[in-house]
């Protein structure tokens, strides 16, 4: 049995497939509901009497809360399990969007954004759950399909939201519809066949103490709660590591102080690790991509006299390609023989080149060409960097790692508008030109650091193993 297979999740026939497909549906509906609301938020807060400055401050509230909560909630999902954390996030987000549907003042609007900013991490937990469910070799393919399903929801949502806003009270109707979608998602998650999940844990010949295998003094754990599925324990001894399969339900009622201690320990281990290079590449490329899109409509109008309607078609075309590109991740990964570091380097170089070609484009047709390949390269790059983070950090802390990545992305969302505004003072091509510089820095960092990645994941995974044993 291969190492990939030994660490994966065991289900009754069809159980794993049903869970994966249901998570695809949850991802689609999640972004479908959210994208109904996002385009309407700025208009609604201004209709409540907010000045542009106040509207900007209110709009940044969500990003700031996401920055602080992403890693914490992701780590919490590692501690209490995927099901309970996912249900909590979905239901609290539904409450936040319901509150948004009753917001008749700026104060109530801000209040409604707080629970959403703190607990809207359902997509990250779904990704962590998928990484629990599949082997390392299957992970890029499954993640690509999940990203594609979510992106389709993000494309269709604004269409429905725009239709609803044409009616009286359209914003409030959209908010309550979004809240209903999150409640529906919570019901779907509740009905998933969690009790069909069985985690395989291995024990070495060198020790008969089950504490050396899994935390909480148990060798094996039922994945009714969905966490710690891809556990990889080091096997010492040639003749053998033996396997024991047992059923056990994970109690979600761990003491709060113990949960907080476990969360803090995991976060400290991740941020004291040698994964700074991956997080920095994520930040640089995230800001570069945001700069590409930051003034896209304005630049198309000033450079090529395109009407907003035509620019909208171009953006929709790029978004659709980005969704479809999710299905290319698996075949491209196989083409590279799962050399994710090389694939990340090449996709980063391609993205950098495409941003440069867009900034220097003499015609709309060149912009169309760059948009075509840009959507593909960025989709593959995002999947690569997530997969590398899980490889180096170990999937036993997938929630913490994915949450930390989202926190880094949130920093980029704060920096990108500021840098874009400064760059536009010089030229409409200023933001993408600055994006080229940042992407080049990411390429240089990868060229320096990739040769040092061999074996880097071992020490990190060992650190997290110690963390689990000490809990």
From TrEMBL:
The keyword DNA repair does not apply. It holds the Pfam family MFS_1. InterPro entries: MFS (IPR011701), MFS_dom (IPR020846). Its main location: membrane. CDD domains: MFS_MFSD9. GO terms for molecular function: transmembrane transporter activity. GO terms for cellular component: membrane. Signal peptide: none annotated. It is found in: Membrane. This is Major facilitator superfamily domain-containing protein 9. It comes from Solea senegalensis. The lineage of its organism: Eukaryota, Metazoa, Chordata, Craniata, Vertebrata.
């Amino acid at each position: 049995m291969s190492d990939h297979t030994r660490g994966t999740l065991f289900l009754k026939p069809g159980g794993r497939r049903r869970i994966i497909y249901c998570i695809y549906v949850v991802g689609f509906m999640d972004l479908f509901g959210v994208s109904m609301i996002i385009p309407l938020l700025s208009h609604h807060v201004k209709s409540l009497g907010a000045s542009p400055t106040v509207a900007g401050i209110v709009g940044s509230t969500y990003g700031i809360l996401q920055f602080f909560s992403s890693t914490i909630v992701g780590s919490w999902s590692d501690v209490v399990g995927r099901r309970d954390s996912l249900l909590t996030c979905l239901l609290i987000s539904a409450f936040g969007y319901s509150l948004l549907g009753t917001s008749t003042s700026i104060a109530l609007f801000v209040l409604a954004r707080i629970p959403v900013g703190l607990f809207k991490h359902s997509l990250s937990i779904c990704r962590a759950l998928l990484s629990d469910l599949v082997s390392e070799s299957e992970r890029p393919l499954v993640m690509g399909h999940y990203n594609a399903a979510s992106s389709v929801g993000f494309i269709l949502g604004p269409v429905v939201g725009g239709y609803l806003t044409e009616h009286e009270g359209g914003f409030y109707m959209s908010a309550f519809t979004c809240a209903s979608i999150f409640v529906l998602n919570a019901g779907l998650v509740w009905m998933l066949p969690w009790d069909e999940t069985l985690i395989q844990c291995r024990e070495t010949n060198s020790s008969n103490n089950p504490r050396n295998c899994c935390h909480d003094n148990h060798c094996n754990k039922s994945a009714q709660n969905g966490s710690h599925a891809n556990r990889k324990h080091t096997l010492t001894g040639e003749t053998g590591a033996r396997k024991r399969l047992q059923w056990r339900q994970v109690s979600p009622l761990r003491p709060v102080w113990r949960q907080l201690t476990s969360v803090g320990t995991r976060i400290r281990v991740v941020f004291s690790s040698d994964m700074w290079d991956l997080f920095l590449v994520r930040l640089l490329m995230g800001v570069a991509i945001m700069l590409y899109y930051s003034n896209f409509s304005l630049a198309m109008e000033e450079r090529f006299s395109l009407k907003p309607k035509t620019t909208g078609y171009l953006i929709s075309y790029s978004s659709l390609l980005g969704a479809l590109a999710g299905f290319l991740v698996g075949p491209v990964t196989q083409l590279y023989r799962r050399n994710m570091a090389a694939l990340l380097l090449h996709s980063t170089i391609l993205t950098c080149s495409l941003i440069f070609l867009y900034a220097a484009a003499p015609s709309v047709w060149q912009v169309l060409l760059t948009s075509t390949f840009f959507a593909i390269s960025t989709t593959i790059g995002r999947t690569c960097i997530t997969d590398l983070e899980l490889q180096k950090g170990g999937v036993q802390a997938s929630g913490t790692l994915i949450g930390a990545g989202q926190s880094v992305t949130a920093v980029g969302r704060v920096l990108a508008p500021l840098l874009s505004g400064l760059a536009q003072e010089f030229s409409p091509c200023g933001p993408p030109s600055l994006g080229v510089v940042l992407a080049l820095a990411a390429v240089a960092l990868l060229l320096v650091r990739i040769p040092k990645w061999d074996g880097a994941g071992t020490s990190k995974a060992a650190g997290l193993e110690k963390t689990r044993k000490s809990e």
